[in-house]
Amino acid sequence: MQPIYPLNEKNISRHCGQLVCAVTADGSRHIGILSSCRGGQLILNDEAVDDVSGGTLQMKGAKKAPRKGKGRKAKPAVAQTLGYPAGPFGPGPFFPFGSRVVLDLALLTLLFLIVL
Questions:
Q1: 99: Cβ–Cβ under 8 A, 6 or more apart, which residues?
Q2: Superkingdom of this entry's organism (predicted)?
């Protein structure tokens, strides 16, 4: 484990998408994939969201929806997420570290990057 210090949004955001362990002031530990850090909150295990457009990230090779107004019929767009492995209950996103966790930065005591 490698400590992430100082605990500010700019420094923490550099590690988005990586496995981390967050320890709060009361001693509880939360392990998960760092999704984002903004607005004074640390979010673990969130859906894959594109920071620029706010939309869902697409898999490589996924076709984009055609532009409107070019004489083509617009097909309904199907939201595609990153290729998560199928879970134990069938196809679909599987999050081995649990559901979404939102922590206040003020409550964090330590944040570790888990290096495998």
A1: 45
A2: Bacteria
Q: What are 27-35's contacts with CB under 8 Å, separation 24+?
A: 30/101, 30/103, 31/97, 31/114, 32/97, 32/98, 32/101, 33/95, 33/97, 35/100
Cα angle value 114/33/35 (rounded, 5°): 130
- The tens digit of pLDDT for each residue in 5-20 reads 999 999 999 999 999 9
User: Three-state SS for 63?
Assistant: coil
Integer Cα distance of 59 and 62 in angstroms: 6
Q: Which CATH code, of 2.30.30.100, 3.20.20.60, 2.70.98.70, 2.40.50.140, is assigned to 1-47+97-116? A: 2.30.30.100
φ/ψ (deg, to 5) at 8: -130, 160
Does pTM top 0.85 for this prediction? no
Q: Let me know how many helices (H) and strands (E) the chain has, helices first.
A: 1, 6
